[in-house]
């Protein structure tokens, strides 16, 4: 009895050791050949998409119910605030219409080459890694629907992120707050160039901002279109000052709110930029 | 195994309960729980399950299953492949080999052990991801995930205990 137990112990030990070694091997291969794993990852995501998609609907419905209940409680105040805001927006609507027609006339006068029309693909967010390490979400559209790697993902507030990996019926979007996200932006009215860099927190950093900067809290951050990956002019966020007295480092509060994200539009402007990817065999539009 | 084909089918179905639970928890960890105002960090559900079943019925949870579940978690979360597989196997090994020291202890003791194991697991995960992505990842969201994981362990334990009651008797731990 004793002998058989110790043999079993030995066998178990070597099984565990083997699996640990296997995991190390997998990590090393992944480091050497990232595209292999990217493909594997999206293959697995493709298989899991219907399951996660089906389960995420009731979760979203539940969250919506809670949200609606909260809205009911503050409906009166909110209604008053919205009425005021509506007045203001009506005014701006009229202004925008005037500017739009003026802009069109001026462009035709100057023979300005128009920017490419964007093709939209709308996807539902089905998976949120809830990342301690990564800020990314999974959407239920993929190469089948014409999603390409590198296209911009926006919601009705502004830029959400970019498509980092594409499967047949799912795609992973790297949020702008992710550690690996770098986006060329314009800051403020002077359109100072900078790079928006995520660091896994809810606020993003600005790097490569010119030292004699003229930007401050409240300034708008929009995409600059440099690098050719994103179209110019997508709203990203506003500058906020950190620190108790507001004198700390300047950070960007993105318009993106990950906890409210439900649908995203993937905007394909036909820009290939720096993110070309031939080996995935993706559908191009 | 004696009895009709049905009872053996029933046995197989019940014996795979831990595996199915683990699969379910991996998917659960991916769902976008949009609690208003939270920073969207989900607890490390799978770790709780691996700890619990390693402690109580490791005969029903083969190491290979834990390994594959780890890889699935890596794929869905977008972490470097192998990280969760490594961490979960390491935890499973430790728990299954030490379980006789914890058997029959009060829940508070087990919880404390879980807190320590989870701390090592999250630190290891943090270290591996940082090294593999060659970026120093800020410790705050990992710490937050860790605290949520420890706080939710009693709740998950309750669910696991209920699941365990449906299981066929016998077996116990392979390290008994």
List the helices and strands and how they pair.
The complex is a heterodimer of chains A (285) and B (176).
Chain A (H helix, E strand, L loop, with lengths): L1 H31 L1 H40 L1 H36 L8 E10 L7 E4 L12 E4 L2 E9 L4 E5 L6 E6 L4 E6 L6 E4 L12 E4 L11 E7 L8 E5 L8 E6 L17
Antiparallel strand pairs in A: 1-2, 1-12, 2-5, 3-4, 3-12, 4-5, 6-7, 6-9, 7-8, 8-11, 9-10, 10-11
Chain B lengths: L4 H11 L1 H14 L14 H12 L6 H15 L5 H20 L4 H27 L5 H27 L11
Explain what the structure shows.
The complex is a heterodimer of chains A (285) and B (176). Chain A has 285 residues and is of the alpha+beta class. Helix content of chain A is 38%, strand content 25%. Chain A has three helices and twelve strands. In chain A, strands 1-2-5-4-3-12 form a six-stranded antiparallel barrel. The longest helix of chain A has 40 residues. The model of chain B has no long low-confidence stretch (mean pLDDT 84). The longest helix of chain B is centred in the last third of the chain and has 27 residues. Chain B has one domain. With 176 residues, chain B is mainly alpha-helical. The chains are: A alpha+beta (285), B mainly alpha (176). The interface between A and B is large, with 59 and 58 residues.
Summarize the structure.
The complex is a heterodimer of chains A (285) and B (176). With 285 residues, chain A is of the alpha+beta class.
Query: What ranges of chain B have pLDDT less than 50 throughout 5 or more consecutive residues?
Result: none
Structural class of chain A: alpha+beta
Shape verdict of chain A: globular
Distance linking N and C termini of chain A: 68 Å
Strand content of chain B: under 5%
Tally of helical segments of chain A? 3
Strand count, sense and closure of the main sheet of chain B?
A: none
Count of distinct structural domains of chain A: 3
Q: Biggest interface, which chains? A: A-B, 59 and 58 residues
CATH superfamily of the largest domain in chain A: Rod shape-determining protein MreC, domain 1
């Amino acid at each position: 009895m004793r002998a058989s137990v110790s043999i079993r112990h030995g066998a178990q030990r070597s099984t565990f050791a083997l699996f640990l070694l296997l995991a190390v091997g997998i990590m090393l291969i992944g480091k050497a050949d990232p595209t292999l794993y990217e493909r594997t990852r999206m293959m697995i995501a493709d298989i899991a998409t219907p399951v996660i998609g089906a389960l995420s609907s009731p979760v979203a419905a539940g969250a919506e119910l809670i949200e609606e209940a909260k809205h009911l409680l503050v409906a009166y105040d909110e209604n008053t605030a919205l009425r005021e805001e509506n007045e203001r927006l009506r005014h701006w609507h009229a202004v925008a219409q005037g500017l739009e027609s003026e802009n069109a006339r001026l462009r035709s006068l100057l023979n300005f080459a128009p920017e490419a029309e964007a093709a939209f693909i709308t996807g539902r967010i089905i998976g949120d890694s809830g990342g301690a390490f990564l800020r990314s979400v999974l959407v239920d559209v993929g190469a089948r629907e014409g999603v390409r790697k590198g296209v911009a993902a926006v919601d009705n507030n502004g830029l959400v992120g970019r498509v980092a990996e594409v499967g047949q019926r799912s795609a992973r979007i790297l949020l702008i707050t992710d550690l690996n996200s770098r986006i060329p932006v314009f800051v403020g009215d002077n359109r100072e160039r900078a790079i928006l860099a995520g660091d896994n927190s809810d606020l993003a950093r600005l790097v490569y901002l010119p030292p004699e900067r003229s930007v401050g809290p409240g300034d708008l951050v929009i995409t600059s279109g440099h690098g050719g990956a994103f179209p110019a002019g997508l709203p990203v966020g506003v500058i906020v000052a950190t620190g108790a007295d507001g004198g700390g480092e300047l950070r960007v509060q993105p318009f993106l709110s990950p906890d409210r994200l439900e649908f995203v539009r993937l905007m394909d402007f036909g820009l290939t930029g720096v993110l070309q990817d031939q080996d995935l065999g993706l559908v191009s539009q | 195994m004696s009895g009709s084909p049905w009872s053996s089918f029933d046995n197989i179905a019940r014996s795979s309960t831990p595996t199915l639970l683990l699969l379910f928890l991996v998917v659960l960890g991916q769902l976008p729980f949009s609690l208003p105002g939270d920073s969207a960090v989900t607890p490390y559900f799978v770790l709780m399950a691996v700890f619990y079943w390693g402690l109580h019925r490791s005969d029903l949870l083969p190491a290979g299953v834990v390994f594959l579940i780890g890889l699935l978690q890596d794929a869905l979360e977008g972490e470097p492949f192998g990280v969760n597989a490594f961490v979960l196997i390491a935890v499973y090994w430790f728990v299954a080999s030490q379980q006789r020291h914890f058997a029959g202890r009060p829940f508070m003791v087990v919880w404390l052990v879980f807190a320590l194991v989870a701390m090592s697991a999250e630190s290891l995960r943090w270290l591996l991801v940082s090294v593999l992505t060659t970026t120093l990842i800020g410790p705050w969201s990992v710490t937050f995930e860790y605290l949520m994981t420890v706080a939710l362990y009693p709740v998950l334990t309750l669910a696991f205990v209920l699941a365990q009651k449906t299981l066929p008797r016998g077996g116990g731990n392979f390290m008994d």
